[in-house]
Amino acid sequence: MRPHVETIQETDYIWHAAELVAGEGRASERRLSVDEEDGSSSLRIVFHTDWGRGPGIHHADTEYYVLDGEMRYGDRVIGKGGYVHAPRGVPADAVRFAEGTRILHYREYGDAGFDPVDSLAAPRWARAAREDVTVHDSAGMEWIAVPNAGPMPGLFVKYLHIDPVSGFYTRLVYAQEGWADHRLAHHPCYEEAYTTEGKMSYNFGDLDPGTYFFRPARVKHGHFVAMEGGTTWLMRSDGELENWYTQNEWVRWGGDAVNYSPNGGRMTWSYSSHDLAGGASWRSDEDLGVLHKALNYQKEQGAPDTDYAQHGTGADQSLVAIARAFDLARLGEGHGGGEAGHAHGDGDGGTDGHTHGDGTEHAHDGSPGHGHDHERKRVPTHDALGWPPPDTLEHEDERTAGATTAARGGRGSVA
């Protein structure tokens, strides 16, 4: 599988000689993300000379999108916004790129392999896709308003290709200035995008032209705000992009520092996402206003939603959760399940002394037993804390649900 790549600017990548088999000309590529197991890859390519190759069969589902310049597919010439999808195992016509052309190039479920053929009449592979090659001039396509645009209108799409079997689809997405989503979303499929125009701010950083991400399934992301002029991406996902939302999220982590405390010794530290915000939201007042508009719109529609606070504002929910856990742990202490609890400490009767809930006191003197058994402190369970067990949180449509539910003896696998 491909690794998680988030908000990286393409200029941070190095150039390689473009891996374009059986072509004539010179080109370079930046490898935005690569699956080292099957060769799938997302590339940004520039052609230093005119470049071309004749008809042939790609070993992977292959896509070309023209950022700038000119592409010729067969007899058709397309410029900026030109798009070609050539299914794996299906004969594709000759392609030509003019010198200086910049493209996005994607290969899915296969590597850069390419078998030249004499004509488009060459036989398809036995298990090739049932589709033909798709060609679009996206500049001439109409933007379609997304019917479920998250919490507020202002999101538009141009569908470039949808696989009729897998649901894998490629589209251009435009968020108009001021479009926002105040929640975190995650999906049952992977999602990747390259920003072609504009700017958007969100929890992982800013998306501006040339920014790329590849986000595996179930990675939470959000708090989107489209900036001045709006923003446009070319976006791909390997299935239906269903949105599952999370609000009022929190994270806390910590550990024992070994050799980097102020005095060089050990110290215990703990941070939360709330702490990292420095006691105030990292959002501007303008951003917060837009996010609250998204919240209010959602409420007006009667959709499921709750109030929220940006990290750094309001109560630190991680501390609230920890305090609740401690309270429940204290309530769980007791002798043999009895009602009178006790607290251990350094009582007057000895170093291991403790006082009972009824006020009496005794010391442990090291002799075997002292007439009653102590019940082990009960650790609060997920149920007691109000949190369902993690393995019950999987949506039935998630691709990993089959293995998980099978291990629990639950439903059968989900495709």
TrEMBL record:
Organism lineage string: Bacteria, Bacillati, Actinomycetota, Actinomycetes, Kitasatosporales
Region entry Disordered, spans: 333-415
Protein name: DUF4437 domain-containing protein
Residue ranges, compositional bias (Basic and acidic residues): 341-381
InterPro entries: DUF4437, RmlC-like_jellyroll, RmlC_Cupin_sf
Pfam families to which the protein is assigned, alphabetical: DUF4437 (PF14499)
